[in-house]
């Protein structure tokens, strides 16, 4: 036994498997094959024959042929379904009582609802920044002289095209008179309303415009998801923007220009300019569907030309045609007059709501007042024909749109008479457009409320009702320095839709009255235009003569003259009599103005003669040589700008200044012969006034009726409970106490 165990332990299994493994495998295969053969049945259990199978099939066939369809059973399947018979039944009116459920549904004791959670807030996106300068209309102090006829205000001049040549002065004069004469006629029935008071002056302002978009439809989806709402319209009613913050970053020298800190921009500055300085607003050039009264700044009235859409409208927001602006302006004026006074003391006035009215508030005021819709329709009907007959005048002063007893019959606003000074001019369009398509329900005469349906205003009115996917953010930064480069970012402030709601999870969702969106991505960078451009004219022993083009901050127009500048002096002159353009009232004459800049004259030099070697190399003729010295092509001056950079001025600087000189020429061209035309218009206006024996009406504004969206409330603010937002701007909790140059008529659809 011991020997057996020892052999087992010492047995070489691997060697055995190598030597005899194939034998073992073949034996196993053979055993399996033998078992399979032994278990196989080699005989069939079927006992029939082919003849029997054939006979059986014949018997089944005879049985089926003998089995006829009983007539009683056949009637249950007739008539057969045919397309002709079924068509009549399908298109026949449904018998509703057959499907009516008359039993009362069993209401649930508790509604199935999940607690509200924290919402994801959508930030402003795709910020663009643009820059420009303009002559902004500001209110001029009224004086005793304003009680008499004054000069009419002239239309904004159209751009002259260098390709098409200069504007024809004769035609320009004819256009001016065509705009004035309808006013003379209207003045006969309105006590001189066709004549302008000196109620506006120009002030030059430089600005940056920041535009962006808010995907409001995406925000509705986020609200619906967070609050577990059943329908999308419930989310729209829960979204309320109350204010915004804006920060600015200044470019610094170095390889990375954007290492400087972000600094808060005080929105008070912009709102102060729009509310207390700007005499009026220019009409909005996009539909109100795409605007929000809190974060879409109104357009301050400019006296030179119309706003360029590419500078104040986001590329993704479509603009309006001129006809659309006219119709929408008419709707807004009628709505403003029907609504009456401004919103009550309970209205939250954050952001640009401090500078402009909210069309949705006016709409609710009209719809919520008995007879309000009827008043609106009456006012609009009266305004419509007069506005169209005014030669381009678009409505008048809100609050004066009804019948004017003793004033020559029913007058809509001041549109008929105010055409006197503006006529067909584009500057008369007034009001906030963007209401034409949105208020189509009104004009369509919908039953019941005359078209004042829930969608008539569109989503831009308060951003709460309508179908626009985007809302446009727009901000004017008036506190910018020439030559500096900036970029911006924005944050919106919204009401907490779950504030004080006990059914939330977690409990922090109900805390805090406001929520803030994330900061937007930085805008595109923008460098502010210089106020002064100059070129070398002639070198002097102690300095040089420079041809200077300067933006006048007092009048908002361009100054141009040749100034002698001494070494070490600033490029400028305290008093210089030169041609000066005033836009309100229009005047082009020589008077003393001030040229100033922060550029310093350092040095200048000229060549009195060329060396023989230079003459030989250049191969100049006598005339060419004489022209070089005569034209100053061999003179050079050096200046130092406000950033400490050396700027060289040579003969090529004259060509660099040409574009600035062209702007001066284009700006002044429409006013070259304005004096004689002004005198003629003034004379006709006085003759028309003499015919008014019973008129006691107050003089209207020459430009057009006041924009109905401009708020008359002061731009003050009150600190809400819990403090403000740290921006120096509007406070959401407060109670009451808004460039390039383009012609109108941009096609709908934007760019």
Report the mean per-residue pLDDT as an integer: 75
Rg (C-alpha, Å):
42 Å
What's the main sheet like? 5 strands, antiparallel
Strand-residue proportion: 15-25%
Shape: extended
Poorly predicted runs of 5 or more residues: 144-154, 160-197, 386-466, 693-704, 715-751
| Euclidean distance between termini CA atoms | 106 Å
Q: How many DSSP E strands?
A: 20
Count of individual helical segments: 21
Residues in helices, as a percent range: 25-40%
How does the helix and strand content classify structurally? Answer: alpha+beta
Question: How would you describe this structure to a colleague?
Answer:
- There is one protein chain.
- The chain is built from 21 helices and 20 strands.
- It has 751 residues and is α+β, with helices and mostly antiparallel strands.
- The N and C termini lie far apart (106 Å).
- Helix content is 31%, strand content 19%.
- Among the domains are: 2-34, no CATH class; 125-139 and 208-405 and 413-527 and 677-738, no CATH class.
- The strands form seven sheets. Strands 3, 4, 9, 10 and 11 form a five-stranded antiparallel beta sheet that branches. It has a three-stranded antiparallel beta sheet with strand order 1-2-8. A three-stranded antiparallel beta sheet has the order 12-13-14.
- Helix 12 (322-339) crosses helix 13 (359-368).
